[in-house]
Amino acid sequence: MINTSKRSAALLEVDGLSVTYGLMGASSRAIENVSFALGAGEAVGLVGESGSGKTTTAMAIAGLLSPNARVSSGEVRYRGNVLPIDDDAAMRPHRWSETSVVFQGAMNALNPVHRIITQIAEPCMLKLGMPRGEASARARELLELVGIPADRGTAYPHELSGGMRQRVMIAMALACRPSIVIGDEPTTALDVITQAQILKLLGKLRSQLRLALILITHDLSVVAEACDRVLIMYSGRIVEEGTVAEIFAQPKHPYTRLLIDSIPNPANGKKMIRPIPGDPPNLMNRPSSGCAFHPRCPSVMAVCPTEVPSIDQFGQERVACHLYRSSQEDRGASHA
Amino acid sequence: MSESTTRYSPLGPARAVKGFLQQLLSHGGAKVGLVCLVFFLGVAVMPNVLVGPLQTAVNATGDFLAPPSSQHLLGTDEVGRDVLNLVVHGARISLTIALLATLISLFVGTSIGMIAGYYGGSVDVWLMRLADFFFVMPSFVLALVITPVVLEVMGRGGDILGFRPSLFVILVVIGMTSWAFVARIVRSQTLSLKERTFIDRARVVGSSNFSIMVRHILPNLVPQIAANGALVVASAIYVETSLSFLGLGDPLQPSWGTLLSLAQRAGAASAGAWWYLGAPGVCVLSVSLSFVLIGNALDDTFNPRRRVIP
Amino acid sequence: MRDTTDILRLESLQVHFPIQGGLFDRALGRPAGAVRAVDGIDLNLTRGEIVALVGESGSGKTTVGRVIAKLAQPTGGKLLFEGRDITSERGSSALRPYRHRVQMIFQDAYQALNPRHTIFDIVGEPLRSLRLVDNATQLAERVGEALASAGLSPPGDFFSRFPNELSGGQRQRVVIAGALAVKPELIIADEPVSMLDVSIRAQILQVLVDLRSKHNMALLFITHDLPLAWSIADRIAVLYLGKLVEIGSADEITFNPRHPYTAALRNATPQIGGNANPAELRALQGEVPSAARVPKGCRFHPRCPLAFDRCRQDEPPSVEVGPQHMSACWLAQ
């Protein structure tokens, strides 16, 4: 559980959030007991493989869960107020003006028959009730903000490159002046150099607009470059949380450690990549008990298959692993 | 390397078929269509058991144009034949012609559509112009042209594959005019299939064009062919009926269309003999409707937007 | 067999796709252009060597792979396999000996497997179509062997399963098993891990690296990921807009790039413990131009931070800048 008094300044607090999907009569938990806080202007990376629940977490925060999903416990607070995340109609005034989302492959979400400036002006008119002229001026302003010359606004989506279109999507996400932007794999479909440009743009927007950023990605190195803090998710739970510097210098959870080891990194000359055995579990075949990572974990202990590790605080970090809990207890015992 | 084998709900072929049937039958229309179709197929398989041999003017049993009674459930025609007897025997002729014509059209349409789509270029252009030609050709005109030729060659009395010459003409005409529709659909589907990576892989592992078409493209076309095949049968029944109605049928092997034509000529409409016109008419309507219902349900079941083709 | 002989050689390979002009262009007799996807590439692979072909989308790297796999026909240049020109060989029977020795692995394993075939049929297909087995027993033996060496064991468990019953990593292993079944001497791997989860990537790469050490198989590894190329390859070739801008040993290209594009690519790649400050992310300005409108002179000059007059006029030749290290940049001359 989150220490609310300590983090009262948080912009967004996610507290014990669990989301269940109804699938063919059965129901399965997509995320379980997810808690974290986000400060104004802070960038948090939400890292996990497919099926880890990172997208579900983000969609829950934005109130964009699919109809067969249900918030079974927990809540999301924005500036201390509980958000009605499972009520589509009640969520409407909060969406886009408090939290907005830039989707993966969003470049294809643009309507091909309208000029981009019209598409950016539309949310301004609909959401903020701006008159056409004002909305159009705002759209030009937004285009300049994301690094597209305002004159290019008359272009149609197909005339722009993938990177440009992703910039347009970011401009649309900023239209209603949100204080949090959620990027769902916003650079995955882009080339390396374009990705760097977009990450640079997001960094600039953060400092310029004091924008908080939740970056959902499977790519640890993107997080290393663009975020302050990292949340590592595995099989629906947060397994580790910490600052970028801490996590990459001294990962605690065996999964995080293996994940970092499986990325070749010329910066430290680490050429040999170490495979993690097995497949990441999907929604349907998660281990029924204990720590979800135990079938693949090299440091597995007797307790791991039976007991779900609780997430414990270690200074600035949080880790959910029996390895650390037992050592803490040992320490406690030796002190006593 | 030890890898825990992840099992994703193993679906054997048997279970896949079962799932498919369940999904198909969840359409109300498909249920109605299947029941109706099974009934007519049953009737067509054993007409002699149900109503005895086909009646002719010689062995007719009833009055002229008698309304339905306990003895003649569907009344009689202008020479005293039992309409029920005629309709039941007509089912066999009509369904056989429609199904055979559909087979011809599916075979020709699939081969030509697949070859055109797979090879592309000038092969595609020429085959599709040929398809366009047959697509716009009115079946009645074609029948008028072919009939005398067949009759000249085969003689009026003989039969071809058990069909009287004029019925054979109808069969061929329907086959010739409906394949173009199938070819168009198959071609467009082939065009999208051949861009799939598994076709590239098949070429890299050395498969010949023929084997790629037969082993990779054809099985993935089956849903489209099945769904459209049902629609082709429906239209074949209509075309057969109208051609027979216009007088191309054979009185010795009366189909439903022939019966309608005979009824028309006997003045059944003006004489108020509704049973004579109505019985074959309802049969044509219900059989083609059931094929349309099944076709639509198949299309829905296979539709990739609703379900990824397994 | 000599070990350092070239197994594959590309000589000024060129693939231009014609552009169909619009109705107006044709009526006015305007010449329709061409997309210069691959615009004169020289590359060689020796036996048992792993070469990575690195480039962004639109660089032509996939087209090069498709030409070598005989899925695309070059419009110019030569493709030599063991010194024999096979540029114009076509047709499945003529290519049978070549296919036996050169196989390909695809990016999207799900798309690369026919959803209606069983794993046995899929892995057995090359053995059947290349006539490498005489009977069913032999076929089953070879299929099992291939599945096992791709890390799918016990192989028998997979024979009658369909692709949609497997996980992403297992599907890619099936594709690899299909390529391995014929015991090729060269495998072209087109982004084989980019669609896979991070924790699975290393497993698949391990399988590929093992092939080289066990069977001395050569590998052309096509990727957009420079660190990944560095970790697996002996040599890296960097492709920009259809031309090789730099080629050299993996370490040289990664740590001592001599072409501004390679340097930009390296700097743009996010790294753990690389740039601490996100604002420091150096991104090149602009985007890759269309291959239909290749810039005059050096094709990188509109985006190059170091461009000078000569770059706008003349195309730089590829020159040796170190042992086995070539760069096509006027600054390297």
UniProtKB/TrEMBL annotation, chain A:
GO molecular function: ATP binding; ATP hydrolysis activity
PANTHER family the UniProt entry points to: DIPEPTIDE TRANSPORT ATP-BINDING PROTEIN DPPD (PTHR43297:SF2), OLIGOPEPTIDE TRANSPORT ATP-BINDING PROTEIN APPD (PTHR43297)
Alphabetical list of Pfam families matching this protein: ABC_tran, oligo_HPY
Subcellular location: Cell inner membrane
InterPro entries: AAA+_ATPase, ABC_Ni/Peptide_Import, ABC_transporter-like_ATP-bd, ABC_transporter-like_CS, Oligopep_ABC_C, P-loop_NTPase
Protein's name in the database: ABC transporter ATP-binding protein
Phylogenetic classification of the source organism: Bacteria, Pseudomonadati, Pseudomonadota, Alphaproteobacteria, Hyphomicrobiales
Membrane topology: Peripheral membrane protein
Chain ranges of the ABC transporter domain: 12-260
GO cellular component, one term: plasma membrane
One of the protein's GO biological processes: peptide transport
This protein's UniProt keywords: ATP-binding, Cell membrane, Membrane, Nucleotide-binding, Transport
Entry-linked CDD domains: ABC_NikE_OppD_transporters (cd03257)
Family membership: Belongs to the ABC transporter superfamily.
Organism encoding this protein: Mesorhizobium atlanticum
UniProtKB/TrEMBL annotation, chain B:
Source superkingdom: Bacteria
Protein name as it appears in the record: ABC transporter permease
Gene3D superfamilies named in the record: MetI-like
Keyword Transport: yes
PANTHER family to which the protein is assigned, alphabetical: D,D-DIPEPTIDE TRANSPORT SYSTEM PERMEASE PROTEIN DDPC-RELATED, OLIGOPEPTIDE TRANSPORT SYSTEM PERMEASE PROTEIN APPC
Domain ABC transmembrane type-1: 91-295
Keywords in alphabetical order: Cell membrane, Membrane, Peptide transport, Protein transport, Transmembrane, Transmembrane helix, Transport
GO biological process: peptide transport; protein transport; transmembrane transport
Lineage of the species this protein comes from: Bacteria, Pseudomonadati, Pseudomonadota, Alphaproteobacteria, Hyphomicrobiales
UniProtKB/TrEMBL annotation, chain C:
A GO cellular component entry from the record: plasma membrane
Parts forming coiled coils: none
Protein keywords: ATP-binding, Nucleotide-binding, Transport
UniProt-annotated location(s): Cell inner membrane
GO biological-process terms attached to the record: peptide transport; transmembrane transport
Domain ABC transporter: 8-266
NCBIfam families: oligo_HPY (TIGR01727)
Family according to the record: Belongs to the ABC transporter superfamily.
Protein name: Oligopeptide ABC transporter ATP-binding protein
